[in-house]
Amino acid sequence: MLLVLGRRLGGAVPVLLALVLVVFILQKISPVDPVAALVGAKASPAVYAAARHQLGLDKPVPVQFFDYVGRALSGNLGDSSVTRTPVAQDLRNYLPVTLELIVAAFFLIVVIGFFLGIATAQGWRGSGVLKFIMVAGASVPVFLACLLGMLVFFRWLNLLPITGQTSSYNAPTGPTGFLAIDSWIAGRPGLFVDDIRHLILPALCVAITPAVAVGRVLRSSLEGVMRSDYMRTARAKGLSERTVLVRHGLRNALGPVLALMGLQLAGLIGSSIVVEMIFARPGIGLYIAQAITAGDFNTIAGVTLVVGLLYVVANVVVDMLQAIADPRVAM
């Protein structure tokens, strides 16, 4: 297991360095002038030159790249021209909101995807309707799911809120930054319930398409596994169908599902940013939208690097889960 972890982490380092290089190149070819964004377009030549020297843009390009890598490794991603604060500090404020959404969406993906996959593979009552839902769900784009969710759960049923992270004006901002956790630490279970109510609809919109994909792959994998010889042997021993499914079927069918989850993570992170903009959640989605409008490349680069790091870490975790489910992966 440690060998698998070492190989995955070793492979992640070049990926992250390549991502830093791409972000640095984009910064150089971008038409946005970072100096003008910092001091203003009407700054005097002396002020402009001083800011250019302060940012290190008067150095040779290779030196600028190595300086950029060093600053990124130390957590210095520059200052945001929108908030006038360090990008790393802004990310510490905005990122927990996005991570909370991603975790909730991933939980729904596992619950909904496994339910759809097992129910349709086992031919439970109503599985025909579930198969139709799986086909329809795979065709719904994220923004349309958001609009339909708002129409049904807010406009018609008036069950769920559709804007912000909470209705409270004095929500705690620490110590973890995750409101679901901080509300319990502060002894405010009502705030926790309010946070979950604000989280359900965005998480569901993010999770629908990946959950359907997981369900379809799990169904195909389970149908193949349940027809195998060792499954017939397990039934011949007198084991119940539920025991055969849980102890033998699911574990052997998880390989393709976990591989798909790794591929879905990139879309999951990207979709969460779009959903945050639609539901006005104060995460990195709104943060980067403001940065793009203002041409704040430090913020754009910082968010890109953090999202890339999240994607790499998530894929390492998925690879480890694959190795646990199927020890042959570790060989």
TrEMBL record:
Topology in the lipid bilayer: Multi-pass membrane protein
GO terms (BP aspect): transmembrane transport
Matches recorded under Gene3D superfamilies: MetI-like (1.10.3720.10)
Protein name, per record: ABC transporter permease
Domain ABC transmembrane type-1 residues, every copy: 95-322
Superkingdom field: Bacteria
Transmembrane portions of the chain: 12-30, 101-120, 132-157, 199-218, 257-280, 300-321
GO CC annotation terms, alphabetical: plasma membrane
A Pfam family it matches: BPD_transp_1_N
Matching InterPro entries: BPD_transp_1_N, MetI-like, MetI-like_sf
Family membership: Belongs to the binding-protein-dependent transport system permease family.
Keywords carried by this UniProt record: Cell membrane, Membrane, Transmembrane, Transmembrane helix, Transport
PANTHER family cross-referenced by the UniProt entry: DIPEPTIDE TRANSPORT SYSTEM PERMEASE PROTEIN DPPB-RELATED
Main location: membrane
Source species of the chain: Trebonia kvetii
Subcellular location per the Swiss-Prot or TrEMBL entry: Cell membrane
Matches recorded under SUPFAM superfamilies: MetI-like (SSF161098)
